[in-house]
Structures are given as structure tokens and as C-alpha cells.
Specification:
With 1024 residues, the protein is an alpha+beta fold. The protein has 19 helices and 50 strands. The strands form 13 sheets. A 9-stranded mixed sheet has the order 39-34-40-43-50-49-48-45-46. The chain is globular, with a radius of gyration of 32 Å.
Length: 1024
């Protein structure tokens, strides 16, 4: 027995020694694996523990959380397992291995979308089956049924923070610093509102935003319980009666804490009938011609119809909607954005709601209509001061002197304000959604920093309320059992939300020209492991990974091979943690980092990266719901008009998407505008051409085209315009050669870097919402101290409430008006089509080429490209061809018409300008007066001064650098000079053909009257 015990002891000791050896070997292998896996990564991975189970023949490696920051796919998970197995060596040949991070085996961290047949789909992350509901809003005038897009998907989307009241400083301010011409709080809007949102909506989604989306500073409220001055609420029919619920009431000029405008009035309702016999009309008095968002409100109820008929009458006609009134009540519901003309004309400026419905016997309910974004009217400040102005307000109402309360409001357009204030004006319940920090917070979990943290955060109610409000707003949109944290059983608005995206651009800085890149944040740790519907919170990681992969892949292919993929963090950021749906908080890039911003200021970058977000969301939701997906097409190209007898033929070409094979155009839609009105709802076309008949001579018609497929509708083409001649005169051919969109001039010499706005402000795509003022600190070494002393990149704030106009792609209308007003018809085409020379050089009275701010443009960083050259070889050949025609007349204008001859690097360009256009370049930055006058030699044909835009203008882009040019050759002479410095602003040639060349864009002349007058003088001069 003793010998047996001794032998047993020896065996046990040997096993222990063997176990220690294996454990030591496993630790060494784990270290080697972590080092190998870290190669090529910006992070150094480390392992936490490794467990060797000799009995079960298993090795379990647990990596620290940083290992989970980057994507897993079937390929790299197999590779990681092979690496670890190889590091373990032959002693572990018979062992199975597993690698974990964050408590998950790494194959479990692969998004469902990327799994192959070797890895089963995690059904718990998929969308859970729900009772199907009709969409909240359906456009029945022009909406399409995009079965493989985002039909009936509800997406919450928001951009950064916004202008907010800082309680501790008793002032309104931005949440971030003013650097590189912008601030994150509004810079992010320039992605979300013009790009990501319409892309999602064009795929069929309903998008909800907790900040004001409309930049229109005017706001018109029409309601039975009070309307904006001049607006009229009108009822017709006997079926209308008071509703049971409270509703919006325009009772006060401003709101204090605790006040909800959707609890200040009543509502109306009418019995639904097959044929309408009752109608509510909302009649606004438009303050200024322009585009206005239209919102409607109503009380929701299960007894309400799902097809309430709203009709918006606008300057482009009328657009009809069906609204599902069983959800979304008691707030502003977005219908669309429409153009309205100034004044109180009711024909093309009203909203109507009737009791027509297929659900007879149910209720059609009604409340207020809101048009335009307006100005902020939530007041903040010291309690005693606010109580004083509230008492005056309650006594005098709207008769109160606004100067008494305006100092306590943001004094900003509402679109710039933070979510916390918009949500109050939009009827959200305060304690559930946006007043979340009234009780003292517990910072004991901050350890030794608890007291310091509590002091720092003390009183920052609005700041914290704002970033926490967005997630709770998403929960309130859904309601029980997904209601806000303070009351999950709150009824809410009953909207079945599919996901949420928080879009930010704050991710650090570098001292050099390297890219910060794209970071994603999700959360699986806040509250239960699943949402109330049983869906796993890990769906948020799937969403984060799919979107980040799409964004980084697209940017690396299109802009910068080294675009950085930053981590995916699983952290309790409020915007990622609070929503009870799959959600991602995205930091696209760093607006504080110069290299990132050089790329991001290019409007083409904004479009492409926004399209990547849309594609990532589409792919996530399609897989979540077991559906096929198709990506909406890219905008069409090569758009042109041609004469076809007394008709006009439109033609265009679809554009292939090299990044997305499903984005194939199947059909098209052509939208029409008459004179200066708005566009209609469009007509579907199966082929890439359309013959326009029954056009009235002398009337200007404009057209734009979109491409469509099963996944959605593209962004529109540029806009072409035409007017048929009213006599036998040949029409004018207008060529739009101004398609440049780009960021401002950037430089980097290592020590200094930044944006030189005086050199070139760039060209926005239609408009720039985020510009705040010029950069004034260019020294890379100047550090950030605080947001008021932000160091390198610091920028002025004098332009913060202005919207910078860019390339509208609508200048054939502006030029065409000048010809039509002088008795000439015209057609128009894009420059690429003109360069193909598929036109008759003798068929036109004149040729007008719009060069605008076209200029050869290169990238400072990334893939080197040269775009937007004016006088390409093809353009030179086409102009030369036209000038050889009978009685050729040429009119060319552009800010860089001479400068680009130097920039483009094509020596033949200068010869062409001298020999064919009869001018030579002199200098740029030729004027600051913005005024031209004719020289004495042509005083008998030209008279008067003409002003063009060289300072901020709300309607047209600014010409920061007009050209001076000089006449070249026989029969060429000076026509106009710039007032002040007397440099040559325009030249003319009177030889075998006639030409006028201007060193500034004709369309920037400030009024239609002046443009028509100048063009009339040119036309008469040509015929003298």
C-alpha cells in the first residue's frame, strides 16, 4: 500500500509538473499570438487569461477587450485559430482551442451579414417578428414602392449636439470648439440633412430627426387654437367636431421649462367617409419666397384611420399624402419640403385635410400645421429672471415686447439648436425625454475622482439633458414596452423603430497630416442583454461593423488608401446605450484634424461617404428582415436638350456604380418646373429620353431627371431649361460647363496648414450649412487650451447664422431668362454633350457657355486627381467648330476663365484663347468692388454699371476671385472694366464671328433686370 501511495504521489506530482509546463507553454503561446495579431494594427493586443483543461483537452484563450475593437470575419477567425494552434505547438495537437473577447468566442463577433455556411446565424440578433403596420406617411402623388429598399422602415437619425445653454456659465454656446471654418454642432448637419436623410427616404424609409431639419428662418403655424399673423385656419363641412385629446396651441411667444405647446390647445376630428364632405384648410401667409418644410400634427388613437388624406398645394402643383393616424400623434410629422411664393395667395400655398378614407366609421383627427423651421423660442437663464419675464408674458401675451425675452433665447435659427429645445417645441414629455438631470447624480462609481467629477458636472443640466435626450426620444417614439427609462410603460407614439444612428465627427487630432479616421461606438452593457422584444443588444455591434466596413472600404477606394479604420467600442455612451433598438454612435472623422477636413470639405466626399452610410444601413436592415436589397442608382449624366421640330427632346445616360453592382437604373422620373415655380411630382419614363410636346413658346420650362430601381430613387441630375422661340429667330444654345464642387483652398508646409478662403472658398453642392468664418490660426504647434482658445485651426464666428450658397446646377434658367426677356428662345445641355458635337453649328443664334467658378482642381492629400478643367481639348474643338458657323456669336463668362489657362498646365489652352476667343489672361483677384462699367469706346452700344456678387449673398454664390483678361489680336478690344482698379473685366471680338468674354460669372449679376439689360446690350451690339 505504501509503495502504491508513493507511486500515486509521484504520478500526481508528475501531472502537476506537466500541467504547469503546459500552462507555461500556453501563456508563452498566448503572448506570441497577441504579438502576431497586433502586427499592422494601431493597437497592441494583450491576452487576459488562458485556461488549459487537460481532462477535456481544451485551451481557452481570453483576450482583453481591445482585441474586439476590430472586425472579425470567417477568414480571419480561422486564421487566428491557426496562429494560436501553431504557437501552442505539438504538445497541444490533440487539443481543441477557443479564443474569446468580451465573453464571446470571436466567431460570435462576426456580424450575421458576413457569416458563411461554416458559422450559423445568430437568430437572437435578427429583427423580431411584429404585427405589420402601415407606414406613418405615404406619398401617393409621386412615391414609389421600393420593395428591395427600405420600404416601411423607421429610422432615427441625428447629428451631433447643437447650440445650447451652458448653465454653469450662464451663456449659450457650442458643445465643441470653432476650428477649421466650422464647429461639429452644425458641421455634421451638412452630411445628415442634405445627403444621408434623403438617401434613406429615397429608398422608402421614414426618417425621424430630434433636431429641426429646416434651415428656413421663418415659421408659420396654422391651427384652430392660434395661428401666426396673416395665416388662416378654415373648416368646411358639418362632420367636424372637437377632439377628445389636448393638442397644439400657439398661446405664448416663448416657452419656459415645463411648458409643452402640445398641451396648450385642443384638437379636431371628423367621421371618415368614402367621399369627402368635410375639409380643414390651413392657409399660410408666406413671408419670403423659398423652400419650407411642411409638418402636420394630430392626436393618435386606435380608432383613427390609417389613410388620412393631406394635400400640400405648392408652387409646383399639389402633392398628396396618406398619414397613419394610429401612431405618431402629438408631435410634428414631416411630410416634405416644398417651394412657396411670397404672399397670401391660397391657390398654391395651403395644406388641406379631408375626411375621405377607405376606413369609414373611424376618425380623421386634426391639429396644427407648421411650415418652416423658425427661430428658437425656448428661454433659459436664472430662475428669478425667467419668472419675471414669464409673468409679463402671461399678462400681455403676444403683445409683449420681444426685446424683453429674446436675450434669454438662443437668438439662433432653430436648426442650430440642440435636441433638448427642439424636443420641447415638438411636444415630447419633459421628464421622460429631455429633463433628465433634475436630481443630483451619483458619481461614487468614479472612485478617487468622484468629488472632482461631481464638481465639474454640477449644474450642467442642459448639456447632459441634450445628449441623453436623443436616446430617450427614440424610446418614446416606440412607447411601451420600449418606453423611456423613467417610464418604460409610457404609451409613447407607437412607431415601430428599426434602428438609430448618431452621426458625429469628433475623434481627436494629430500634429501631422495623418488621417484620424472612422470610429464606431455601440453598447451591450446598459440594462438587460436584450431589448424588450427579445432582440439581442449585440445587433448593435452588427450594425456598427457593417456601416464602418462600408464607410472605410468606400473611402479607401475613392479617396485615400490609408483611411484609418478606428476601433468599435462597446461603451456606455448615452446615445449608444439608451435607445432600445440597434444603434450606432458614429465618429466619421475628426473635424479637429486638418487632414481629415481637407477630404471632408469636398462635397463629393460628403455624397460618397453618406452613400456608404446609407448602403451599410440598407444591408443591415435587409439581412435583419430576411430580404434582398438593391442599392438606389447614382444620378444620371450627359443630360441634354435637342430640337425636334417644334418639340424638345430630353436625353441622358445612366451612371454605373463601380462600388455597387446592384445599383442599376431600371426606369427614370422627369420633373418639370414652369418659370420660377417649384417642381412637380414627376413622371415615370422607361427609357433614357423623352420628347416634350405642347410647350408654349416664350415660356421657360426646366427639367431634372432621377434614376430608379427596386431599391430606390437617385439624387436628381442638374437642371436644364428651355424656351421655344415665339418667332422665326433661331434659339440660343446654352451650355452648362459649371459642374465644379470642391472644398476651399488648402495648404500644408509642415509648420503651418489650413484653409485660405481669400484664395478660393471652394464651391458647395447647392449650399454649405456649416461654415462659421475664416481660419485665423495656422500654426500647427499652437495647442488647444479650451473651446474659447482652441489653438491650431481656430476660426472666426462672424458667419455662423448664414448659409453659404454654392453651385445650384440651375444656371441655364438664369442665363435663359436674360435671352427670353430679350425675345430669344433657347435650349441647354451639359458640357460633355456639347463636346460630343452632336449639334448643328448653324442652328443657333448664339452660343452661351456657363463657366461659373469652374477651375482645374487637385487634391492636397490622397489619390491625386485633376478635375474641372475649363478648356479641355474636347471643349476647344467644340468651340472652334461652332465659331466656323454662319454668323457665329459666342458669349462666355467665368471667374477663372483666364486663371485656368495657367492652372491646367495645357500650353495649347493659351493659344486657343488667343486665336479663337481673342483674349489672354492677366490676373486673378482682379476686383473687390463687384462692379463693372463699359469703356468709352463702346459707350454708344453699352451704358450703365452692373453689380455682381463679391460678398455674402443669400441667393447666389460669392465671386471671391474674378479674373482680369486682356484682348488679343486684331478686332479684339476691351469691353468692360472693374470699377476702382480699372482692370479689364470683359473683352469682345468683332471679326468673322463675334464674341464677348467676361472675367466673372454672368449669373452673379445681382438682379434679373440687370442681367437682362446687359444681355440686351450684347445682343444689339452683335447685330449692329
Amino acid at each position: 500500500m505504501l509503495i502504491l501511495l508513493i507511486l500515486l504521489g509521484i504520478a500526481l506530482q508528475s501531472c502537476l509538473v506537466q500541467s504547469k509546463r503546459l500552462q507555461k507553454k500556453a501563456i508563452k503561446a498566448s503572448t506570441e499570438f497577441a504579438q502576431k495579431a497586433s502586427e499592422g494594427s494601431v493597437y497592441k493586443f494583450r491576452f487576459d487569461t488562458v485556461v488549459v483543461d487537460q481532462q477535456a483537452k481544451k485551451v481557452n484563450l481570453k483576450m482583453k477587450e481591445g482585441f474586439s475593437y476590430f472586425p472579425f470575419r470567417p477568414e480571419n477567425t480561422r486564421q487566428y485559430n491557426d496562429w494560436f494552434k501553431e504557437s501552442l505547438g505539438r504538445k497541444f495537437r490533440s487539443y481543441s482551442i477557443s479564443i474569446e473577447s468580451m465573453g464571446k468566442e470571436i466567431s460570435e463577433l462576426i456580424p450575421n451579414y458576413y457569416r458563411d455556411q461554416t458559422i450559423a446565424v445568430d437568430a437572437s440578433r435578427l429583427s423580431q417578428p411584429t404585427k405589420s403596420k402601415l407606414p406613418i406617411v405615404r406619398n401617393i402623388s409621386g412615391g414609389m414602392n421600393f420593395t428591395e429598399g427600405l420600404k416601411n422602415r423607421n429610422i432615427a437619425l441625428w447629428h451631433s449636439h447643437g447650440w445650447y445653454y451652458e448653465n454653469t456659465l450662464d451663456r449659450w454656446e457650442w458643445q465643441r470648439a470653432r476650428v477649421f471654418l466650422t464647429v461639429e454642432d452644425i458641421w455634421t448637419m451638412d452630411f445628415v440633412v442634405p445627403y444621408i436623410t434623403p438617401m434613406l427616404e429615397n429608398a422608402g424609409a421614414n426618417v425621424f430627426i430630434p433636431r429641426e431639419r429646416d434651415t428656413q428662418k421663418h415659421e408659420l403655424i396654422v391651427d384652430a387654437d392660434g395661428s401666426t399673423k396673416g395665416c388662416v385656419y378654415q373648416e368646411t363641412g358639418e362632420a367636424i367636431q372637437p377632439g377628445k385629446e389636448k393638442g397644439f396651441g400657439l398661446k405664448v411667444p416663448f416657452l419656459v421649462e415645463g411648458e409643452n405647446p402640445f398641451q396648450m390647445g385642443g384638437t379636431r376630428q371628423m367621421q371618415a367617409k368614402k367621399s369627402a364632405d368635410s375639409r380643414i384648410s390651413y392657409l399660410p401667409e408666406i413671408q419670403e419666397t423659398g423652400e419650407y418644410v411642411v409638418y402636420v400634427s394630430y392626436p393618435q388613437n386606435d380608432e383613427n384611420v390609417t389613410d388620412a388624406r393631406y394635400t400640400v398645394y405648392h408652387s409646383g402643383g399639389k402633392t398628396e399624402f396618406m398619414v397613419n393616424q394610429t401612431m405618431g400623434g402629438g408631435t410634428w410629422i414631416y411630410l416634405g419640403t416644398f417651394r412657396f411664393e411670397k404672399g397670401a395667395g391660397r391657390e398654391n400655398a395651403r395644406v388641406e385635410l379631408t375626411n375621405e378614407s377607405n376606413e369609414t366609421g373611424k376618425w380623421v383627427t386634426a391639429d396644427a400645421v407648421k411650415m418652416g423651421g423658425g427661430m428658437g423660442n425656448v428661454v433659459r437663464g436664472q430662475a428669478a429672471q425667467l419668472e419675471k419675464i414669464r409673468q409679463i408674458r402671461d399678462e400681455k401675451g403676444f403683445a409683449m415686447d420681444s426685446s424683453l425675452w429674446m436675450p434669454f433665447a438662443s437668438q439662433r435659427p432653430r436648426y442650430q439648436e440642440a435636441s433638448r429645445y427642439y424636443l420641447q417645441t415638438a411636444g415630447m414629455p419633459d421628464t421622460l425625454v429631455y429633463l433628465l438631470n433634475k436630481t443630483k447624480s451619483d458619481y461614487s462609481n468614479r472612485g478617487q475622482d468622484a468629488a472632482l467629477y461631481a464638481k465639474r458636472e454640477s449644474g450642467k443640466d442642459d448639456y447632459k439633458d441634450d445628449y441623453q435626450s436623443r436616446g430617450e426620444w427614440v424610446n418614446y417614439l416606440m412607447g411601451a414596452p420600449n418606453g423611456p427609462k423613467a417610464n418604460p410603460d409610457a404609451k409613447g407614439l407607437g412607431i415601430p423603430m428599426d434602428m438609430a444612428l448618431a452621426f458625429h465627427t469628433d475623434a481627436g487630432t494629430t500634429p501631422d497630416s495623418s488621417i484620424i479616421g472612422t470610429l464606431m461606438i455601440y453598447d451591450t452593457t446598459y440594462g438587460p442583454d436584450t431589448f424588450a422584444n427579445g432582440q439581442s443588444r449585440w445587433a448593435s455591434r452588427d450594425l456598427s461593423d457593417i456601416v464602418q466596413t462600408q464607410v472605410v472600404d468606400d473611402l479607401q477606394k475613392l479617396y485615400f488608401l490609408q483611411w484609418t479604420r478606428r476601433p468599435m467600442w462597446n461603451k456606455q455612451y448615452a446615445e449608444a446605450a439608451r435607445p432600445k433598438v440597434p444603434v450606432v454612435l458614429s465618429e466619421l472623422l475628426s473635424h479637429q484634424n486638418f487632414a481629415d477636413m481637407v477630404h471632408a470639405y469636398d462635397p463629393r466626399f460628403k455624397f460618397d461617404v453618406s452613400r456608404a452610410y446609407y448602403k451599410g444601413i440598407l444591408k443591415f436592415l435587409a439581412f435583419q428582415n430576411g430580404q434582398k436589397y438593391v442599392v438606389q442608382p447614382l444620378p444620371v449624366d450627359h443630360f441634354q436638350m435637342s430640337l425636334d421640330g417644334k418639340n424638345i427632346r430630353l436625353s441622358w445616360s445612366p451612371v454605373a456604380d463601380e462600388l455597387e453592382p446592384t445599383a442599376i437604373a431600371k426606369t427614370y422620373k422627369v420633373y418639370t418646373r414652369i418659370e420660377n415655380g417649384g417642381f412637380d411630382n414627376g413622371r415615370k419614363v422607361n427609357e433614357p429620353s423623352l420628347i416634350l410636346t405642347d410647350l408654349k413658346p416664350g415660356v421657360i420650362y426646366s427639367f431634372k431627371v432621377t434614376a430608379m430601381n427596386e431599391g430606390g430613387e437617385s439624387f436628381p441630375s442638374e437642371i436644364l431649361a428651355c424656351s421655344l422661340p415665339s418667332d422665326d429667330k433661331k434659339p440660343v444654345l446654352i451650355v452648362n460647363a459649371f459642374d465644379r464642387i470642391c472644398g476651399p483652398a488648402a495648404f500644408d508646409n509642415g509648420k503651418e496648414a489650413g484653409f485660405r478662403m481669400s484664395e478660393d472658398e471652394g464651391v458647395a453642392n447647392k449650399r454649405d450649412l456649416g461654415y462659421i468664418g475664416e481660419q485665423y490660426d495656422f500654426n500647427r504647434k499652437v495647442p488647444w487650451i479650451d473651446d474659447d482658445n482652441s489653438g491650431f485651426g481656430s476660426s472666426h464666428a462672424d458667419q455662423e447664422t448664414r448659409i453659404v450658397q454654392g453651385n445650384s446646377f440651375d444656371y441655364p434658367l438664369v442665363h435663359g431668362q436674360a435671352f427670353r426677356n430679350n425675345g430669344f428662345g433657347f435650349i441647354s445641355m451639359r458640357d460633355e454633350c456639347f463636346e460630343q458635337k452632336n449639334w448643328d453649328k448653324n442652328a443657333f443664334s448664339a452660343l452661351d457657355i456657363i463657366f461659373g467658378e469652374e477651375k482645374t482642381t487637385s487634391r492636397l492629400y490622397g489619390f491625386k486627381k485633376r478635375d474641372f478643367m475649363l478648356f479641355t481639348p474636347e471643349m476647344r474643338q467644340a468651340i472652334t467648330e461652332y465659331s466656323s458657323g454662319d454668323k457665329a456669336r459666342l458669349f462666355l463668362s467665368g471667374a477663372y476663365i483666364g486663371t485656368d489657362l495657367e492652372l491646367c498646365g495645357d500650353t495649347l489652352g493659351k493659344k486657343f484663347a488667343a486665336d479663337v476667343l481673342h483674349f489672354s489672361p492677366m490676373t486673378n483677384h482682379a476686383s473687390k468692388s463687384g462692379c463693372i462699367y463699359p469703356v468709352n469706346a463702346v459707350a454708344d452700344q453699352f451704358s450703365g454699371e452692373f453689380q455682381f456678387v463679391q460678398e455674402y449673398d443669400p441667393a447666389i454664390y460669392k465671386v471671391e476671385s474674378p479674373d482680369a483678361i486682356e484682348p488679343k489680336g486684331k478686332d479684339a478690344k476691351v469691353l468692360f472694366r472693374y470699377k476702382g482698379d480699372n482692370k479689364t473685366a470683359g473683352v469682345c471680338f468683332d471679326g468673322d464671328y463675334k464674341s464677348v468674354v467676361l472675367g466673372f460669372p454672368f449669373e452673379t449679376i445681382t438682379t434679373e433686370k440687370e442681367r437682362s439689360e446687359l444681355m440686351g446690350q450684347v445682343l444689339k451690339y452683335w447685330e449692329k
